[in-house]
Each structure stands twice: as structure tokens, then as C-alpha cells.
Amino acid sequence: MQARERIRACPVCGALTEQTPCAICADPRRDASLICVVERAVDILSIEKAGSFRGRYHVLGGKLSPLNGVEPEDLKIAELEQRLAAEPAREIVVALPSDVEGDATSYYLARRLAGRAVRVTRIAHGLPAGSGIEFADELTLSRALEGRRDLEPGS
To answer: What is the CATH number of the domain that holds 60?
Structure first.
């Protein structure tokens, strides 16, 4: 019960934390111009365990799924846009699962962020199709982050 009262979502990125902002957002050594977009807060732990990403994060809180009633306004996409307006980034790394909903959400984000002065990339598909980030080992995640590429809208 005590943990439930102390842990909350970081107001900046959405990570689960006891402090405001979270340790990652508060760390001046992290590259604030590099933002990794993840589906869930627990995905941050998997990427951090790989040890190769030195930017910051943004938790969407899900992925697009019209069949399940999850539309863009149900995700924290508007918050990401507000964040980009307040603190410009040079790159958005989309780290969503390589399933149908993850792909749809990734391409939707690329289209929605097109026209901004920000590079939108997606982690390489070193993860098994239909699987989540939490099932990947550290080496696979490191290679996926290193092999990311531009995410072109409409391609």
C-alpha cells in the first residue's frame, strides 16, 4: 500500500517514479535533445538495462488500436507535441513493438511530427515480430537502438 502512495508518473516523461521529475529527466548528463518514445513505462527499464541509450523518454501509454477503441487522443501524443514545443529535440526514437499496432502507431507519429525540425527514427527490427521490448535481451536491444533508421511518413 505504501508503494502505491509514493509511486506516480513523472510529469515530464510518464515514467514511474517516487521523485518529481524522475531521475532520468532530472539527470543533466542525459541528452535532452534525444527522446525515445515507448509504449509503457516498464519499457524504459528494458532499454536502460541495455545501457546504450543516453537520451530521455516519453511514455505513450499504449498504441493505436481502432479495433480495441484506442485512438490517437487516448495516447500521450499531444503531450509529446507540447514537450517538443517547450524543449526542442533533434531526434525522436520510436521504440514500439514490431506488431501491427506498433507499426501503425510509429507511422502515425512520423506523419504527425512531419514538418517539425526533428528527425524521427525507429529502432531496428532486431526484436521478434509480435513481441514486446520486455522479452529482448540486452544485446538485441543495444543493436536495435544502434541500427535505428529514419521513419519516413507514407513509406
So the answer is: 3.40.1360.10
